[in-house]
Amino acid sequence: MIRKTCSILHKPKAQETMLTMSFVANKAYPEARQSTYLNFPEKWVWNHSSRRWTIRQKGSLIGRLPFAHANCVQRYYLRLLLTKILRVTCFEDIHTIHGVLHPIFKSECMASGLLNNDGEWHDALNKASAWPSGVHL
């Protein structure tokens, strides 16, 4: 018996996630571009049945992003970027910082100043390794 495999990526609804549909809302509504993805639920409501964001009619809500452990490197840095970047209409917008297209989310975080580089730590360790003994290190 031959079994057909079905990939979730080929299902039409799988492409319509809350994140990707926020891109659609940002394209369609200028006022949507004033919120980060984290703050999107303050002014927008996710409709599960239509898989669309609509303008909130009353009240407000605090947004929440799923936890991403630092071991899940790409997810962790994407989550960090989504808390800071405005006017995102596609993944390329997330990958572009100051007009430069970055291949990975970590380099975007570095370029946008969300992460300090480790240069100061390397300098401190190099200086410290020159004078104390192993016990003092």
Q: Write down the secondary-structure element order.
A: HEEHHEEHH
Q: Shape from CA axes?
A: elongated
Strand content: 5-15%
Structural class: alpha+beta
Overall tally of structural domains? 1
Distance, first to last CA: 65 Å
Determine the mean pLDDT. 82
Q: Biggest sheet: strands side by side, in what order?
A: 1-2
Low-confidence stretches: none
Q: Which percent bin holds the helix content?
A: 25-40%
Estimated radius of gyration: 21 Å
Largest sheet: 2 strands, antiparallel
Tally of separate helices? 5
The count of strands amounts to 4
Can you give keywords for this protein?
two-stranded antiparallel ribbon, 137 residues, alpha+beta
Question: How would you portray this structure in words?
Answer:
The protein has 137 residues and is an alpha+beta fold. 33% of the residues lie in helices and 9% in strands. The protein contains five helices and four strands, in the order H-E-E-H-H-E-E-H-H. Helix 2 packs across helix 4 (105-111). The longest helix has 12 residues, at 119-130. The protein is elongated and about 65 Å long. The model has no long low-confidence stretch (mean pLDDT 82).
